[in-house]
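User: Please predict structures.

Assistant: First:
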Amino acid sequence: MIFFVIFGSVYGYFNFIKEPVYTSSSQLFLNENSADSTGNNNGLRDTLFLMSTYSSILESPEIMDAAISKNHITMTKQEVLNNLTKKAGTESVIMKLSYDAKSPEDARNFLETLTQLYIQRFPDYFKNISIKIIESPELGKLKSNEREYILAMLVATFFILMNITIQIIRDHTIKSRKQLLDRGVICLGEVIHISKRDLFEWRREGRRTGYGKKKES
């Protein structure tokens, strides 16, 4: 029951309450134009080391602010950056970009503008690097909520296990004088709730000291 309540709530929120989010993506290939006299392209190695720097140029005012202005985006620059994902590491000269927006057109248009501005302005920073678009931005696709669903399932499972644990503990709680006597424990006065662990410790102590044993006739 708990599982269905939690999972149903998460499913209902993302499918009927929260506004849909669309994602558009693109890929850029960056490479240095020079090669040494032996024919070895050392530019590739240098490009790999600087991929993080190249991706940071996207956030420069000449590129990011211009893209925001051209698309008439009313969000702040930080909000736009939060919707932008950049993947550029030291193992590939391909930069992957994706942008989230509330409509498929907005996602594509902004990423398309950003990509073109990046290619135009990049030579101002690095003149010997060429950039080629290997995946152009397309209409944004509805963003999947699989991660949120998995998280909801894990949370629901956690609460179910907690509930089972509580029920097990309750089932092994001493609630009456008769329960103590049935287990060979001498009881004087009122009976308080005793956990199974406490009862085990008491019985072990009783066996060690001989307390509570019946006298032999």
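Second:
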Amino acid sequence: MPLMISEMSLAIFLAFILSLLLPTSNAMLVSKFEANNTFTPSTPCNPIQSSRSKKLETADVLITGNSTISGLNNTFNLGFVNPGGKPNWYLAISYASIPTPPIVWVANREKPITNLTSTRLEITAEGKLAIIALPGSTIWQSTNTEKARSLLLQENGNLVLLSAKGLIIWQSFDFPTDTWLPGMNITSERSLISWRSINDPSPGLFSLRINPLGFNEFELVYNKSAKYWSTGNWTGDAFDGVPEMTIPYIYKFHFSDPFTPSASFWYTERELDGGLRPPLTRFQVDVIGQLKQYTWTQQNEYWNMFWSQPDNKCRVYGLCGNWGVCNSTLLKPCVCVSGFRPVSDYDWESGDYTGGCVRDSRDSCEESDGFMEVGVVRFEGAAMVSFVGTRSVCERICLSNCSCIGLFHDGKTSLCKNIYGSLLNLRNSSSDSTFQDVLYVRVPKEGIVRKGVSKSVLLIGSIGGSVVLLGEGEKAEKWFFPPYAAQKIIEGNVAAVIDSGKGVSIGGDCCGDNAGVYSYGSPSSLGNASSPAK
């Protein structure tokens, strides 16, 4: 039965979903529906009894070529799949009887199969499930220590190995990839990690996890460190950033032992009126770093994506890499700054933009370089030094230092902001910024695009304050340089002025409205800001 959105406003529907972010539990079955629609969690005291489990013998060959193992009620299949793009195969669980079935779990995501004809899935002498490439190389194997006696692909998509007593000794739900299914748990040691690209299931840079410090919320993070979205704290009934969780829903959410290292979160299905089963659903951390929920609409045979966070894809940290600009209005959200190109065309075509962009020309540090207008931008990951001066002075100082990659200049106030390092998280200013400074990027003389010539104008929003120093991935510091230090800056010796302790540090976020607290000091580093010009 398809999900009836009319039963609840779409906004509530979506927001409520937002809350569902995470499951975690012990390695036991938590699916609402077994073959007989009876909830029977598997525990050491509650072994699985099923006529659909496959008895295993040593050296049993389970899958070769295009053969598959079907799950209970034929909801899921286990088999070798090729996501496309390259001649690589993976042992995966995917939906059955659905056109272009999504893959929900991958065993060997970091070690693809390159020759399917000589590869098979079998049970080893130790009772482990293993992918073997003939004549005997092990590509992947399960981690169970007790010998498996039977195998079962459950109706909820969980692949389990059972002991002689019918107890679960290994299960795929303990090793999730990018997809969260009903009954699957997320814990402090178990998270969802995106695919690298739409054709490459190897681990990407975006993940969903329980906050490792307070165990009180779920967060989306970039490269295991930079948080860019969260649910807010758990209040006992819901996350404070997801109040809609308290509204009756077709799924039930469970948070066990919150605020402790053993915290776990999962969701189960509720029966609909008349004992009907809810539609198939799944959450996914996709290749561009958004958490999305999909529900299968049987009548129209398509996956309805009705909720995602962050709602603006350009708020995903590092999505477009260095020198890539995010525009949430585009189908493909990332484009390179004018004068730059993708580091890997293949990756960009596959939906992986995190490698960013590089200059079209290798010759990028000559005093004959010029500056090309990019537009109004907002960014992170670079050092920025500001002072009062004419546009020509601003450019001359930048050209005297190979570390200077561009500048802002305000013609009304004569405020110059020279930029050092690389630009990360470039994004359209119209999405979340009120700044209106125009970015000019340093380019070789022959690469300059004059006004009136067709070019890509990329919009973002800039950083305010007198002097701003941005450590990569760190919070910004603002610095004010008194008049007697201005000449040092004009001479290009930026680092010397900073290291002398003549600057005034202004605490606070670089892009916020906080005035900050003033104190004297010097930053620990400005990267290569003092590098001599060629």
